[in-house]
Design brief:
single chain, 573 residues, alpha/beta, 5-stranded mixed β-sheet, binds adenosine-5'-diphosphate
């Protein structure tokens, strides 16, 4: 445990009562509260003691598997015993390659509560990235869902996996299991294991790590401490962030292998909420079924997930829902409004990054701001990324400087954040210097304006901005407007070179199946919604917007394909 008490020098340091005119000096007074470590065994023990009857439900092919937090706690303690038997070192990294399931929740706690480090591998990364990550983190064992083994197994023989001693397979119903001595079966190991006591005294020890893919270079490792995870969990419980409570039934559609399932797995355990895990089936149909049958109150996922769910809501009873947190990429206003119109509940936008644990802001509307505003105006507020979370500081600065820009809702600059669950550096990576400022803030790589009310509005990624004649055009805002057109399924806007304006926007648009849309019709529609000089110089109709390994629009790929596209407006050609 860190000793936070002042050093003898600090205690003898004396405070002047500046400005009081009193010429006496007093020793600096310290608080007299207990120095209780903020570690995960506390959250685990709380669920074990207080909520053993609450359920954790996992969707499996053909139905659901149910058990209680009581069962979970027993199995998680046994898992601790398994890690001892496997000889995983103190502080050793144990990777998971798994869907959201009750078993994954056992690993989420069993690994860090025994002093090891949970390393969630993102199953959607390219194989070279996974190999790099496994080597870089020096994983000692990997726990993999049987249905995902086929994806991982071809990599196991590679040199990058030479540190990995065990592959432990969790049976989720489907997939071949090769006959190989490195493979062990999770259920067999648990059945034979002895439950262990959990204790972690040093709150600054690593609890978990995740690699963020970025768009160039190798992924970068973010290492969460017990303290950062506990504080982030407490934030998720606050009413103005996600407000997770014992009364909630939580469906984390956002993967546990990407950005900690936005803190929902930890928050559910801390609060004693019923959990509903979607397993491998993230189809809209399965999600609507789960929401309806399990009476889900909080369902969280990226915009693509909710685009798949929206058309399936007619005639379904999803009245149990109280919040639909959504982030990872901008939430189109039309999507949020679609939910509001169909089920009376708009989407709750949140913003964050792997580096920010990830919850950093959320889009609740302040009470007095809701008064007297039209639905359209409220939708505009919800389309922003929201207010910084408690304990998170945010600022926007002029690119490449530390000069803070005004919060006027218009001026844009690089968004920077700091706080107790925000990374201070990357794991063994000399690229840290580029991402953290000299005064200790994370450079997010997002471009934003902040309103006078404190609402963050992302306009771009620093590398995606379009600069036309020296003025910024927000590709995100253009995309939002284009995706508001009823005939548009997806749209991404990139900047392409232009002789006169240096860059102009090119819209790459996917039309909904069965619809027809012309460039003129789309530009007419946009004409009433954005400034004239923002209108894309051309519209390309494409079959699909290329996606990154984690399912976000890959503008890099679009730029590679169309970056030298000659715009009809470019007279130099
Ligand atoms: P990766 O880097 O692996 O894609 P992250 O989840 O860490 O994964 O990505 C973080 C980035 O995602 C943010 O910097 C931002 O650009 C984008 N993002 C997250 N939430 C939102 C949101 N609500 N609106 C717009 N962009 C978002």
């Amino acid at each position: 445990m860190p000793d936070l008490r002042p050093t003898p020098e600090e205690t003898s340091d004396e405070d002047t009562r500046a400005g009081t005119g009193v010429d006496t000096y007093a020793p600096r007074m310290q608080g007299l509260m207990q120095d209780y470590p903020l570690t995960l065994p506390h959250l685990f023990g709380r669920a074990e003691k207080l909520f053993p009857k609450k359920e954790v439900v996992t969707s499996v092919p053909g139905g659901v598997e149910r058990y209680t937090y009581g069962d979970w706690a027993d199995r998680t303690r046994r898992l601790g015993g398994v890690l001892d038997v496997l000889g995983v070192s103190d502080g050793g990294r144990v990777a998971t390659f798994a869907w959201n399931s009750a078993r994954h929740l056992e690993l989420y706690f069993g690994i860090p509560c025994t002093g090891r480090v949970l390393h969630t591998l993102n199953i959607r990364l390219f194989s070279e990235q996974i190999q790099y990550i496994v080597r870089h983190a020096e994983d000692e064992a990997i726990f993999v869902d049987r249905s995902l083994l086929a994806l991982l197994w071809p990599l196991v023989g590679s040199d990058d996996f030479k540190n990995v001693w065990h592959i432990v397979v969790m049976d989720d119903g489907k997939g071949d299991i090769p006959d190989d001595s490195r493979i062990l079966l999770y259920e067999d190991l648990l059945a034979e294991a002895t439950p262990v006591e959990f204790e972690v005294r040093d709150e600054n020890r690593a609890a978990a790590m995740a690699y963020t893919s970025g768009t160039t270079g190798n992924p970068k490792g973010v290492v969460y401490s017990h303290r950062s995870t506990v504080l982030h969990t407490m934030a998720a419980l606050t009413a103005d962030l996600l407000g997770v409570s014992e009364r909630d039934v939580i469906l984390p559609v956002v993967p546990m292998f990407h950005a900690n399932a936005w803190g929902l797995a930890h928050a559910a355990v801390a609060a004693g909420s019923k959990l509903v895990m979607p397993g491998a089936d993230l189809s809209g149909a399965n999600l609507v079924n789960l929401i309806e049958s399990e009476r889900v109150t909080v369902a969280a996922g990226v915009p693509t997930i909710w685009m798949g769910v929206l058309p399936l809501l007619d005639g379904r009873d999803v009245s149990s829902l109280r919040a639909i947190p959504c982030g990872g990429s901008a939430v189109p206003k039309a999507l949020s409004e679609g939910f509001r119109q169909k089920i009376g509940l708009p989407i709750l936008q949140a913003w964050g990054m792997t580096e920010t644990s990830p919850l950093a802001s959320s889009g609740h509307i302040k009470s007095y701001m809701a008064e007297g505003r039209t639905e359209e105006e409220l939708a505009d507020i919800r389309a922003m990324q929201g207010l910084p979370a408690p304990l998170v500081d945010a600022r926007i600065v002029e690119q490449g400087t530390l000069d803070e820009l005004p919060w006027d809702g218009e001026t844009t600059g690089e968004l920077q954040v700091r706080g107790p669950w925000i990374a201070s550096e990357y794991y063994r990576d000399d690229r840290s210097a580029e991402s953290f400022t000299d005064d200790g803030w994370l450079r997010t790589g997002d471009v934003a304006a902040i309103s006078d009310e404190g609402y963050i509005r992302l306009t771009d990624r620093t590398k995606d901005v379009i600069k036309s004649g020296g003025e910024w055009i927000s590709s995100v805002e253009l995309e939002n407007e284009i995706m508001g057109h009823p005939k548009v399924a997806e749209a991404a806007v990139i900047g392409v070179p232009h002789a006169k304006w240096s860059e102009r926007p090119l819209a790459c648009v996917v039309v909904r199946p069965g619809e027809e849309l012309s460039k003129e019709e789309l530009l007419d529609y946009l004409g009433t919604r954005v400034a004239k000089w923002w209108l894309p110089d051309d519209v390309l109709f494409i079959d699909e917007v290329p996606k990154t390994s984690v399912g976000k629009f890959s503008k890099k790929t679009l730029r590679e394909s169309y970056g030298s596209y000659v715009l009809p407006t470019d007279q130099s050609s």
